[in-house]
Design a protein that fits this description.
single chain; globular; 7-stranded parallel sheet; alpha/beta; 4-stranded mixed sheet
């Protein structure tokens, strides 16, 4: 932050703001546009795409911009950006292709459409910042292979839980400690919540009911922690992590939940708890030097062996511009995977399901997601929660059972299916997923 804010002021003084292309104009896109337009020097939202164009105009108006035009062609978009006139694009891919756009931000929450946008941006040398944990957790490792191929960057975002955790992880490592537990905190955990139960909350805050449901049923936190796992090499102790373990005691004592020998043996774990006061994310770390342990005790960090470091908030769109600047100015991507997937998110039946049903998307009525180690995910041929939508059940699945690829027929011609098969082939040398793709849909 200390470097980034200075660099942004310099861009403002030079009259060379970072030009952001926003894909998606939902609740977070609205907050991000308002933040950039009114509180971030050296940056502007140059263009927005949304399936419903009127919503894109609305988020510009929300930020105080009325001089917005609709553009239907590449030439019209490029011209508007050169003239510093905010534009609503009829075609998302014109934003990805524009030489006038510096960074593309994906705020869609869609795995399939997000993958198409990301690859198009890469083909034109554009870095992409994700406010889309679902695509990152599902196919992030292989997407970064494509990013490197095109000299581009795919980054998570500051402010969202994976970014906040990874910033804290880097900081703690910089102090000389060894992180052992990467933790997230929820206020509520109920895997059976659905858009009907969450409608009132969603309306109160102006959010989408399905997205709010994904928060409540545990899917979102599973996607988030999978990103952290893939960026650190940490694993889950068991499928589902703590599954909503309530911990309302002092965060400085949260290390008592974990066995140091167990987490050492595993190489580090990801987890989450419910209800911890004044805490949004935490990192538990040990220090191998007894001399430094003495100092940590003096500085009121406790007696170890797991020392707690925590942050009490995550401010999402307030902080996301920092990621955009880090990528554009310093090529510093946030939360890149170390290699292939370590943890993924499998689909679990939210209710009894019957053969012939077409599965709805995450955050809806039929499934919830749980974080699981990739070895188990592959051995069980588990269906990823990020790719459930449109799958047709071939057999009945009982409530709380993991849904497998053998249980479903996949929709035809999905890019995300091909990319996930390539991800397994590239990193794990496994081809079973290729063989399950519909004819004509194989990579």
């Amino acid at each position: 932050m200390i470097i980034v804010d200075t660099a942004l002021r310099a861009r403002e003084e030079q009259g060379k703001p970072i030009r952001v292309g926003l894909i998606g104009a939902g609740f977070m896109g609205q907050g991000l546009t308002n933040q950039i337009e009114n509180s971030v020097p050296g940056m502007r939202v140059a263009a927005v795409y949304n399936r419903r164009p009127e919503r894109a105009f609305q988020i510009y108006r929300y930020s105080g911009r009325e001089d917005v035009i609709a553009v239907a062609s590449q030439a019209a978009l490029d011209d508007a950006i050169r003239r510093a006139q905010p534009a609503v694009a009829e075609d998302a891919f014109t934003i990805c292709r524009s030489p006038e756009i510096d960074v593309v931000v994906d705020v869609t929450g869609s795995v399939e459409f997000g993958a198409r946008v990301i690859l198009e941006a890469f083909r034109h040398g554009k870095p992409v910042v994700l406010m889309n944990a679902e695509v990152d957790a599902t196919i992030g490792p292989i997407l970064r292979v494509y990013a490197r191929k095109h000299g581009a960057i795919l980054s998570a975002c500051d402010g969202d839980e994976p970014g906040v955790q990874m910033n804290l992880f880097r900081w703690v490592k910089g102090l000389g400690l060894i992180p052992r537990v990467m933790g997230n905190v929820k206020g509520l955990q109920d895997p059976y919540r659905n858009p009907t139960t969450q409608q009132g909350w969603a309306e109160r805050w102006g959010q989408n009911a399905a997205m709010v449901t994904s928060f409540a049923d545990g899917s979102k936190i599973s996607f988030e922690q999978a990103i952290v796992a893939n960026a650190t090499g940490f694993v889950v102790k068991s499928r589902g992590m703590s599954r909503g373990l309530e911990y309302k005691d002092d965060v400085m004592k949260i290390g008592k939940l974990y066995d140091i020998d167990e987490v050492r043996k595993l190489g580090g774990i990801i987890d989450y708890v419910v209800g911890t006061p004044l805490t949004k994310v935490y990192v538990l770390a040990e220090h191998p030097d007894p001399k430094q342990q003495h100092y940590l005790s003096l500085y009121k960090m406790g007696d170890g062996p797991l020392y707690p470091f925590f942050i009490p908030y995550h401010l999402v769109h307030f902080e996301t511009p920092m990621s955009i600047a880090r990528v554009a100015l310093f090529r510093d991507g946030l939360a890149p995977p170390l290699g292939g997937p370590v943890v993924e998110v499998c689909a679990v039946a939210k209710t009894n399901l019957s053969a012939g049903q077409i599965l709805d998307d995450y955050g809806m009525y039929m499934t919830y997601g749980e974080a699981v180690n990739t070895g188990e995910m592959s051995a069980g041929r588990y269906l990823p929660e990020g790719l459930v939508e449109g799958c047709k059940l071939k057999r009945d699945v009982v409530k709380d059972a993991v849904i497998t690829y053998d249980d479903v027929e996949l929709p035809p011609n999905r890019l995300a299916d091909r990319l996930r098969a390539e991800q397994y082939r590239h990193f794990r040398k496994e081809t079973w997923l290729d063989e399950l793709l519909p004819v004509g849909g194989r990579a």
